[in-house]
């Protein structure tokens, strides 16, 4: 899937939602809970079965994969684990501000 900056993606395996902050230059498959994320929210009564091996998605956190240059911001929490091409995304550490003396 070709991701673009500002794209909103929805998990079909759990309630997680993300926005793409930095898009990779290559096509990648972004997964949540073992299923590809989609660009439209699921409608109707769908059963959701997410695999939460990494602790799930935390709202307000930025997740990244430095290998391809992907960064997403979680806008809704979910039980699934974010992965790109089989690699779990890591939580991006905040930038440290210089100490003010």
TrEMBL record:
Protein name, per record: Uncharacterized protein
